[in-house]
Amino acid sequence: MSQLVNREYVVSVWTDRGIEDFYIAFSIEENFRGYCTFFCHQGLEKLCKAYLLGERASEYESLPEVKAREEVNKIAKDLGHSLEEMIKDLINKGVMAQGIMTKKYGYITGEECIQILEQGYIECRYPVPEPIHKKYPLTNKKGQRMGGWLDPLHSSEPREFAYDVGRAIIRRTEKDFNISIQRDRVDDGNWTRFRRLFFEDMQTL
Asked: What is the pLDDT of residue 137?
């Protein structure tokens, strides 16, 4: 039986990595806003997997350390990369409320934010023939086409959604698994600003 690869260790490691991705997104936002969407996707994916791995601790805690690590890796890979599937799973488990999908973030819903984050995961790495901004043409108050598009990958709405869901998952992770997630990391002003922004509202969604 592995004394190291237990629920607390696995959940803490995956949660820490997710928070670090959010921090990277925060750090590059001013100069590389489009890439923030990619790191917000990565951060939220890891927080989702942290909780889901915590639920399945019985599948790896009783194994020898090497086998336990392999099993954790297998579970994580089998969960895939679909934020929509993982978030809907967490909603069904009562980790957060269904309302997060219809909650409005500026001009888009939570469900649209998921689609934008998932598309950003692709677009921030590769040029694509149909970028997601083509779905958001600029219109006037009468709904008439004005030319140009809104670019959701460069807007703050997907990040705000990712922060909301991420905070909800962390809160439930700490409560359900009796784990304390570390808030302090690097000792600089940038981390202090990020910590204040990310952890300012730990309400459950």
From this structure: 57
Count of domains for the chain: 1
Give this prediction's pTM: 0.86
Would residue 204 count as lying in a domain?
Answer: no
Question: Containing domain of residue 109, as a range?
Answer: 7-127+156-198
Return d(Cα 49, Cα 70) in angstroms, integer.
15
Q: How far apart are CA 86 and CA 117, in angstroms?
A: 13
Sign of CA dihedral 17, 172, 179, 4: negative
Which segments of 107-156 does DSSP mark as H helices, in order?
110-123
* Residue-level pLDDT at 19: 94
pLDDT given for residue 93 in this prediction: 94
Higher-scoring residue by pLDDT: 14, 1:
14
- Above pLDDT 90, what percent of the chain? 57
Residues 2, 33: Cα–Cα separation, whole Å: 42
Q: Does residue 148 form part of some domain?
A: no
* 147 has a pLDDT exceeding 70: no
- Assigned domain for 142 exists: no
Pair 157, 113: CB distance under 8 Å: yes
In a domain, 147, yes or no: no
Distance CA(25)–CA(158), nearest Å, equals 12
Q: Distance between CA atoms of 172 and 162, rounded to whole angstroms?
A: 15
